[in-house]
Design a protein that fits this description.
By secondary structure, the chain is an alpha+beta fold. The chain contains 10 helices and 4 strands; from the N terminus they run αααβααβαααβαβα. Strands 1-2-4-3 form a 4-stranded antiparallel β-sheet, sandwiched between helices. One of its GO terms (molecular function) is oxidoreductase activity.
C-alpha cells in the first residue's frame, strides 16, 4: 500500500472498521446525531435518484425491548445507542418526477430530461418484481454502508445484522407493504474488548484484471 493511501483519512477510516461486539451501554446519541448519520447515509447512490429507503431509529428502551426478541436477542440491539431498521422500498418509478424536481429547480438538470429518466426506469423495473426488490436491497445497503463509515469516522462502532424475523419486524414497526427490512444496523460508542479488523482474502484471489 502506498504512503499516499495510508495517509488518506477516508481510507484509514474504511480500513480500520470492524464489526463491534461490545458497546458502552451507558453511552447515548442525541436525536440530532442520529439524524446527521442518516443525512450522511442518504448521500449514497440510488438508481435514477429514487432514494427508495427509510431508516427506523430504535433508540428508546421501550422500542429496544420490542426489537430484541424478534432479533434473536442479539446484545448489540439493546446495548448500542441506536439500532437502525434499514428499509428498502420496492421501486416505484412514478415518484421520479417528484424526486427530480429539486434538481430541475436548482438548475442541475433541464425539465425535458425528466421523462428521459422516468420512461427507461419504468421499462427496466416495473414489469419485473424481482428487479424491484433487488433494487430495494441495493439501495438500502448503500445507505447502511455510508452510515457505517460515517460512524467510524466519528469514533463510533457499528454492527450490521441480518439475524431477525423479517415478518415480525414488519408488523411490530409498521413497515409499509412496499417496504423490505434489509438489515439491522447498531451504532454506538464502543467499550474495550472489540476485535481489530480481520484479515481478508488476498486481492489476487478476488480480482481479475482483463
Amino acid at each position: 500500500m502506498t504512503e499516499a493511501t495510508m495517509s488518506n483519512p477516508v481510507i484509514k477510516t474504511i480500513l480500520s472498521r470492524s464489526a463491534t461486539k461490545y458497546y458502552d451501554r451507558a453511552a447515548t446519541l442525541s436525536d440530532d446525531q442520529i439524524t446527521e448519520l442518516v443525512r450522511i447515509g442518504t448521500s449514497a447512490p440510488t438508481s435514477f435518484h429514487l432514494q427508495n429507503w427509510r431508516f427506523i431509529a430504535v433508540r428508546s428502551r421501550e422500542a429496544k425491548s420490542r426489537l430484541g426478541p424478534i432479533a434473536w436477542n442479539q446484545p448489540a440491539v439493546t446495548d448500542a445507542a441506536v439500532t437502525f431498521i434499514v428499509c428498502g422500498q420496492l421501486v416505484d418509478t412514478s415518484v421520479i418526477p417528484a424526486r427530480l424536481a429539486p434538481l430541475v429547480e436548482a438548475g442541475v438538470m433541464p425539465a425535458a430530461m425528466v421523462p428521459e429518466w422516468e420512461i427507461p426506469a419504468r421499462d427496466l423495473y416495473m414489469a419485473y418484481p424481482q428487479r424491484r426488490r433487488d433494487e430495494a436491497i441495493r439501495t438500502a445497503t448503500f445507505g447502511a454502508a455510508a452510515i457505517i463509515y460515517a460512524a467510524r469516522s466519528l469514533g463510533l462502532g457499528s454492527t450490521p445484522m441480518i439475524g431477525f424475523d423479517a415478518d415480525a419486524v414488519h408488523r411490530e414497526f409498521g413497515l409499509g407493504e412496499e417496504e423490505v427490512p434489509v438489515m439491522l444496523l447498531a451504532v454506538g460508542a464502543e467499550r474495550p474488548g472489540n476485535w481489530a479488523p480481520k484479515p481478508r482474502l488476498p486481492v489476487a484471489d478476488v480480482l481479475d484484471l482483463v
